[in-house]
């Protein structure tokens, strides 16, 4: 009870002392008008906010701006906070994947200050903390995935990183808007192995396609031969078409074709 009472007395004494200093500072401003306006009047841009502290305590209202605001000399100071979206490139990180492959991955993070007073009062350097957290989060998330998942699921990895970062930085007044995985660099030996595997797969597919084409072509030829063999007139027309194709070529060979009927009669005579 004594400690509680002592703390209350100290708090009341501190408030009285703050009121006295505030009154003295206000009197000083009034006495030195209009010259004090050059010291007291401050301006922040549309994309900025000013976090004001009075005797070490955060002033009510949190932040001020945009536009003109006033501070009391000697007892108040302020810090400007930029609210625009900031782009941060995560340096290439050496990551060991779940299937024991060492890769180098870099990414880009888009974030902004959402709560200016919290970003100043709750963390020493909100921007540096966010950047360090982004690097560790990238390594942690990629370390739980196989190489083929990292190469095929970049968008899912980016969304997971954004969710984790946004949850952690919310207490710092930071809003992570977007995360993008820029590049995944593989070891040269693994690149050559993957290229050889892809080339072998393409060759295998080409052979399968060629074999299927040959199979379909042979079936079509067999069906055509069966149809032609059932009609002597069709055989004659095919023979004449072949002669026409040969005659169209410019060569020095002269062919004297014999009628199919004459050839068929010779064949029958030989059989008899």
From TrEMBL:
It is found in: Membrane. It comes from the Eukaryota. Keywords: Membrane, Transmembrane, Transmembrane helix. The chain crosses the membrane at residues 20-44. The keyword Transmembrane helix applies. Residues 39-198 form the Band domain. Signal peptide: none annotated. The keyword Transport does not apply. Belongs to the band 7/mec-2 family. This is Band 7 protein AAEL010189-like. It comes from Limulus polyphemus.
